[in-house]
Structure formats: structure tokens, C-alpha cells
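Hey,
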Amino acid sequence: MLFVALVLFVLQRYHSPQLAGATAFMAALPGVVVAPVAGALLDRYGRARLVVLDYTVAALSLGLIAGLSAAHLLAAPALLAIVAVASLTNPLSWAGARSLFPILAPRHLWERANGLDSSGHVIATLLASPFAGTLVGVVGGEWALAASGAVYLTAAAVMLRLPDPRTTARQVGSVLGNAWLGLLYTLRNPTLRGLALTLSIYNVGNGILTIAVPVLVLGRLHSGPSTVGLLWGAMGGAGLASALVTGRFNTEGKERNLIVGAILLGTVATALLPLAGSLAVVTAALVLLGLATGPFDIGLFTLRQRRTDPAWFGRAFAVSMSLNSAGNPIGSAVAGPLVGWSVSLALWVAVAFALLAVVFPILTIPARNGRSAVASAPSGI
């Protein structure tokens, strides 16, 4: 809901693609910067409680944005400041929830657990994106953001009942020291380093799409916010199907090929968008993007789990996920000026980044899970 509602809210209230891009940038970048500290906290204090903390912060920030906007007191700098502060806790839920799966599930069921993880994300996209778009169109962006905050509170209540599983993680020294060690571990791990290069570049294109697709649909195709939500929902439905199918197969040794194939399919899908003269073409493109999501996610999640020492799951996952997602805020930031000039230009730039990302898994990710594919623990731990 937040993914759709926040961008549509800014476009509806401020009529500025540039501000929409800046908002998406500030809603992500601070969390990326503090991710190593978040990972150290997760490994030291557990996961469930810190996930609840992030969900609570998200709910409060969304309620604040909605309330200030309804009172006509939300200046653009205040909006950017609120989303920036709220983003600081984001890695607690990104890495906290995702690192729970390989701890709770036995190794031989990781593909199925990752299929469930990916499916949960795309089910949310399938159901919540149309709902958020409809709320923006019918009752306004403030109510859509408030509803998103209510969902975060519900999720926090659910997570409160989950006990933290025992892990083999052991930390000595300060949180900041362990955050630094987690960063070193991730950068020295060839697989995690290769994934970071691949995804940070690929996600620049995804960050551009976050802004460019709504502008394309609202501007060139003269549709409403509910249509934007339905289109993202169609992408989620396709992603659900592909995740469920891919999760039933043993992917060991094939993860890199899954990632490359998914990026190629995503590149083809993105290339359809600048040519789109109708909603049918946009729908086809986003459905193809959704179909690429399942194998991409399962290849990524499983490869990262297999080539990370379980004692480092919190720190390594937090750093890895933050590096992987670094391209999203960059793409959103550059999308604003690009879309202001030409939405087609912005979409072609997204295609170029997707195509560039194809070569990195082949060049930077080791093909086999040998000693050269896994980092040793940095000294001092």
C-alpha cells in the first residue's frame, strides 16, 4: 500500500514528479546508510521485537503525514524530513524478517520457504496496490496513507506473538564495532559483493519505474490512481504464480542462471513501456515484470542464504539488502527530472540500467559454493 499510496499522494497533492522522486529517495536512503548498525542489533538482540519497532515507527510516521496534510500544514520539507527519519528503522524489518526464514526452515526446504517469502510479498502487491490506488482516487491520499499505517499496526500486533528463535550468533564488543565487522564480512564475501553490484544497478531502473509508470498512466494514458494500483496488482499476481512454481524446484547450482534469466525478462518487459500507447501494453509489460520476480527472488534469497555463515545472517543480510536496494532511491531521485523532461526518456534509461545489470552476475558471482565463494569471519569476532 505504501509503495503506491505515497507516490500517488505526492503527485495528487503537489503535482510534482520531482518531489515524488525526492520523497522516494528520502524514504529509502537513510535506511540504506544505517543498515550495518541495524544488522548488528538484529544479531545481538533478536529479530521479532525489532521488526515490531520498525512497523510501529512506520505507522506513526504515516499517521503524522496524513494528519498534517489534512490540516494543510504539510510543507514539502516537512514531508521529506518525516520519511527520512522513518526510513532509519527500515532495515530492522527488511533484514529481520528475511533472516528469520533460513533460521526457522531446514536447509532442504529453503526453496519452498523462499517461495513463501516471495509469495507473501507479491500477494501484498496483488491485493494492496489496487486497494491503495482506489483509496487515493476515491477518498484521497491522506486516507490511503492512514490506512497503510493501520496495516502496519496490525502487522506489529501479529509479530508480537512470535518468539525469537535461538541462533548461533555471538557478538563481543560494541554494536558499532560489530556493524563494521558485518560490513567487512559482506564486502569480502564474493557472492554477496556480486549480488550487491548486480542488484544496485538493476534497481536503479526499478526506482525509475516507481515514478515513471504512474506518470505514464496518469499523464499520457489519462487514467486514474485506481488504474495505477490495478496495474501494480497485476504485476503482483504474475509474481505470485512464478514464485509458487519456482519454489517447488531444487535450485542449488542454478541460482545464478535464474537471476540472469529474470533480469533479461525484466529488460524486455521494461522496453515495452516507452512504446506503450495503451493500457494493454502497460499491463503486458508489468505482467512480464511480475513473472520475472519469482525466479529472481528465489535465486537471490537462496544463493545469499547458502553462501552466508548463519552466525552472520542479521549483519550480512542487513548490509547485503541495503547495498542491493541502493539503486532504488537513486533511480527515484533521477526519475523526477527525467520524467519532467520526457517520460519516454526516463523509461529508456531504466531499460539501459536493466540491460547493464545482466552482465554482473556472470562476471562477479562465483559459479560454485567453494571456499572462494564464502567470506571468512573478519578478525576481532
